[in-house]
Amino acid sequence: MDITFKQVDYTYQADSPMATLGLRDINLHFKSGTYNAIIGQTGSGKSTLLQHLNALLIPTKGEVVIGQQVVTPQTKNKELYDLRRKVGLVFQFPESQLFEETVLKDVAFAPKNFGKSVAEADEIARRALRLVGIAPELEDKMPFDLSGGQMRRVAIAGVLAMEPEVLVLDEPTAGLDPVGREEMMTLFAKIQSERNLTVILVTHQMDDVVRYAEQVVVMEQGRVLKTGQPQEIFADIPWLHQHNLELPSTGRLVQQLQQQGFQFSQVPLTVPELLAQLTPQLKQVVTYE
Amino acid sequence: MVPIIQVKDLTYTYQNSKVPALQNVSLTIEPGQWIAIVGHNGSGKSTLAQMLNGLIAPQSGEVYIDGELLTEESVWAIRRKIGIVFQSPDNQFVGATVADDVAFGMENNGVPRAEMIPRVQAALAQVGMTAYADHEPARLSGGQKQRVALAGVLAQRPQVIILDEATSMLDPQGRHDVVSLMTSLRKTGQFTIISITHDIDEAALADQVILMDNGKVITSGTPAEIFAQGEMLQQHGLTVPLSEKVRQGLLQAGVKVADHYLDEEQLVKNLWTLHSNK
Fold this sequence. Notes:
heterodimer, A: alpha/beta, four-stranded antiparallel β-sheet, 11 helices, 21% strand, B: alpha/beta, Rossmann fold, Energy-coupling factor transporter ATP-binding protein EcfA2 (chain A)
């Protein structure tokens, strides 16, 4: 599903003396089936933007077009039922939203709620659980008896069971260990390609942005500062520093190497890229000098 | 010198669990050290931390803090020596203001008010949160909350500070603030710092790294010793620091880079000597 923001403003507590601007003049396009990342400091408006993607918030000005649905300041809540089914939101620490008695019931809750029979909902839930790697033996367990990593997978299965066309991920790997993080990100990439989903990822993990995102949106103080491919966004290290943005993990090392006279035609964003550019500048074990 | 922490043969299995969370764990920690306990989620590292100040009682084995055996009788005195900052910044506040919150532990321990006030002020100054003394804790950022939690621990003048994944829920700025605070606390030489983490860059700052998995201590050593064993770290669910990944990559490409672990600064120096344009 294509998503387009046209001149969107969002004001918190509009029409009150407490009014504060959350978003200003947002113009964005997320192409159907692509992997997008939104980066920016805490408080830059990332979460406010996310909440527009399934109309948890509706714009104070402008419009958001999500598939066929146009959301404007006049849109009424009851018009948004279909939209909310099509856009799955995985919030930070989604495991805190588990509530049912068993794993299967928890995951089947959304499809049931959206009108499927119990048998159909259970079938959809089982598919979603297999997709996130939860074994059948765990289906009858209490969600709270699972490990933290398993609980998070169950919560994500709950979102996938809605069979959404858009998957919105807000810091989905926060608090996970490196292997758990890697598994989770691989899982999202797999789901994205298998189901041809539009993914919108909010993260501080720049290595994930470099690895997965086709388009990066940089936010600052409620505005879009820049959009582009990872290579364009991360090419200008001084600009990133100026806007208090993190670099991919190679960034700091690259800077130190540049200060020592090493040359990089393009800022290497991953370890293999760094090695490819660095090795020719170093003396090899076998030399013919 | 009496070890600040000595743990002998600790074993613990949670109710409803078939596998032990800790199995025959023994270790000795000297005062003034910064120890990183690393391991993936569920490796037993947090269980160990909670056993050090008696939040969980061992089913077998012994814990000695500053030479004293941890028992039901000694636990209260020992908790004054050990402060813990937990993972979630939101679940550890009781006070209506930042200053009240920092004072809470001292109130519990019957510290007189006249002494409490300067100790709160000193602790807030130490974590750089003086300007927020009258603020509501709920309105602070994650990093600020963890600094306040740390001030609450410091105000009790502990000998040991345990940070149980205290940075894992923070954004990069918050993490940076807490880590630089830990570094400055180390410099005072007054504390033994135990950081429980799966952030390998944080572990790199420690004097000693203890690797845990399946409730057991797998190995321990200096960061250099541990990080040189990249394959083993990966087997136990962790990664190696970037400088080590690059060093390994260069070795494989036939570059005569140093044959041991280097941090980023050392690696850059080492590569400079190998620069082909010199």
